[in-house]
Amino acid sequence: MSPNALIPSHRKPRRPSASSRALRAGVTGGFLTLAVTGATVPANAAEKPVSETQEMPTITTALATSAARSADTAEQVAFNYERQALQDSAFSQAAKAAEKDKAEAVKKAKAAAKKKAEEARKAKEATEARASRSSDRSTLSAPASASNATGSTATLVSFLKAQLGKAYVLGSSGPSSYDCSGLTQAAFNQIGIDLPRVSQDQSTTGTQVGLDNLQVGDILYWGSAGSAYHVGVYVGGGKFIGAQNSSTGIVERPLDYDMPTGAVRVL
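-> structure tokens emitted (267 positions)
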């Protein structure tokens, strides 16, 4: 061994390992810098820079805050659009419902007006009918001259006697058969007096008279006035003529055969 080998300053420098690297890091202008330095380069390799540097963006507080605000803004915009869509839908449904309610109200109002008009028409017709009946009764109850009454009475009694023996048929008004009110109506038609068709109405036509003050031609009724169930005609001498029933037909009978309830005078 050489004497110089023991002297440190004369030792041959150790060749660094090819894989040895030095890592340096630093921040410059907001970027993170990594520097890798190779100690040796193989002899057959091309020349390379001593250091290779990569720069990566550093996430700062301001950048993070800006990103968060952008996300919040986007979320708020989406929420506003959704809320507006819901409001528009609600307004549209409310408008349709209001239109439907309005149409229904108009329909009901028209129906109510039609019903009211119909009721008014019926009331008017009823009033006119009552006025007409009152007028007819006033005409019937007007006093007649003695000669007219005598002539009318004779014609009335003559017609009634000519019907004796004909059949009683409910609802019939002659000439071959009659019911009670049909006979009296037909008899008074002979002297120009138009009586109502049914017993109930005939019992309230003209003037009510007592059974102790009867005159020829008075209408006799059985039952109460306005709801009489049978009528006949007083022909004098304490007798009346009437269409009694289907068994007897048209007959002449004394009052005490079937005493009437009341009487009305139309002559």
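The radius of gyration is 64 Å.
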